[in-house]
Prior knowledge:
The chain is of the alpha+beta class. It is built from 9 helices and 20 strands. A hairpin with a 7-residue loop joins strand 7 and strand 8 (128-130). It is globular and about 80 Å long.
Amino acid sequence: MSQAKSVVEVSEYSGGIVGPGVAPADVVTDGGTIRTGTPPGCWGPMITPKFQGGHEVTRPVMVEGAEIGDAIAIKLKKVQVTSLATSSGVMEFVEGRYRGDPFVAKQCSACGAISPASHIEGIGDEAVRCDNCGAEVSAFRFSNGYVIVLDRENGVSVTVDQEVANRIAGDADIMSALPGESAQHSILSLARADIAGLTSRMRPFLGNIGTSPSKDLPDSHNAGDFGAFLIGAPHDYAMTEEELNQHKTDGHMDTNSVREGAILICPVKIPGGGIYMGDMHAQQGNGEIAGHATDVSGEVEVEVEVIKGLAIDGPMLLQRPDDLPPLAQPFSAAERSAVTALAGRWGQKEIEVNGPITFIGSGKTLNDATTNGLERASKVTGLPFDEILNRATIAGSIEISRLPGVVRVTFMCPKPILEKLGIAHLVEQQYGVMGA
């Protein structure tokens, strides 16, 4: 590794792949800061045939002292949208323009070129053209799509009509605020405007952030649901189910509480961890039911901390207090006093000191993802599986992050366990001193 720096700035991207084969951007000290500008995920890379993943994330940053079997806490200090507009919607595949998986193995149906270079001609559905033969080449279509303009200062947005969408498409790269090293086409060039005048609040977060998997794979497939498309696939990134479960780190979470103020704790599966980030969304409800949300360019700043010996298979999350489910929010002083009085009336001498934690689970379906999150929670904390079920039921929640298969498993965890894991100080940073 090169000499570690206390502040690392990243301006280069991985081209759709994450893993040990991607050259690191730099090395940051334990406790250091990473700053970057991220390009949009999903639709831009999806309509850019040379991409072999559905996102465009940063090249990884190694963390000094992080070894396999450790974890890295990523403290999100800044998550700010820079795009002025974006476009998204429900997708359809174009048959004949991919091999097995249109996110990973695109091809030109006219000349047969695999992952061809391409360019934009004009605007609209047929704007993406093959450099080799000039044919329209996008492997994706909108079945229902929209263009949305963003007011970052006031945190609001509104979808626009066709006339405005066409005007925005003429300045697509500028309106997208694509970083200089980004290699994707702007989805604004397609100018799809099926919904006009729909308003929404902005609530930016990162949809793909974490540590590098231990084998190269498409960045959008670093999760149990999207990753399932790699099992037995007819392209170079095919894996068995066992390989996928071994190597992935579940960085592609689309979890809308991974936003400014949250702390994400990620597994270290390669030396240095390899922190990468991207796929910022301007807003998204739980579930990302349309398959895609409002992907935007953005500015990100995080601080990192190595947690020695915390062997986890997927991410843990310390959500912002205002993002916690109601039953996992720490008690106020008045509530603690009432609990003490209640216990006293019944002769209950012990009151557990605890704090909220969230485990991310992923799988082919929501049921699989829920089981995965619960099993991870039990394995890491040492609490019996059935006790995790009870805790998540009466002092926590199961929440959908993405369909078909990413969930949050949140529950109140006893302080001695948090101390044993080496994260009690982070829980107290996030929620205050733990008490009954």
